[in-house]
């Protein structure tokens, strides 16, 4: 009988990560988007802040993306980040392919409210 603990590793020895999915809560007919753990940690770059107009109360692992913010990020092709070491200046960072895919999925499907599952 095979050891089931071996099933959590790829043939090259790297551990497999459970896949994460973005589920469109406001558009349940839309197929979920699979995302990496890296993109999961970057969602905060693109979300509309809690307390902004039209942002509902959000549950755990839920995020809101205003269509105007999504469109601006896609049009600019960049995201502006504040360094914890220099809070007075913002750094402009080009969108990665995965970030652009996320924003395109949100825009194409008119998705605003998502939950991360996985």
Which structural traits does this protein have?
118 residues; alpha+beta; two-stranded antiparallel ribbon; 6 strands; disordered N terminus; 4-stranded antiparallel beta sheet; 26% strand; 3 helices
In angstroms, what separates the terminal alpha carbons?
28 Å
* Fraction of residues in H or I helices: 10-25%
The outline comes out as: globular
Low-confidence residue ranges: 1-16
Query: Could you state the order of secondary-structure elements as H and E?
Result: EEHEHEEHE
Enumerate the strands of the largest sheet in spatial order, edge to edge or round the barrel. 2-1-6-3
The gist of it:
With 118 residues, this protein is of the alpha+beta class. 24% of the residues lie in helices and 26% in strands.
């Amino acid at each position: 009988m095979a050891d089931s603990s071996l099933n959590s590793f790829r043939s090259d020895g790297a551990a497999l990560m459970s896949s994460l999915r973005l589920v469109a809560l406001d558009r349940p007919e839309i197929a979920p988007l699979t995302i990496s753990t890296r993109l999961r940690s970057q969602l905060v770059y693109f979300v509309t802040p809690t307390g902004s107009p039209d942002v509902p109360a959000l549950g755990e692992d839920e995020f809101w993306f205003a269509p105007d913010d999504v469109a601006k990020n896609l049009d600019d092709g960049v995201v502006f980040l504040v360094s914890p070491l220099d809070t007075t200046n913002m750094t402009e960072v080009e969108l990665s392919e995965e970030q652009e895919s996320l924003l395109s999925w949100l825009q194409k499907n008119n998705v605003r409210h998502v939950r991360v599952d996985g």
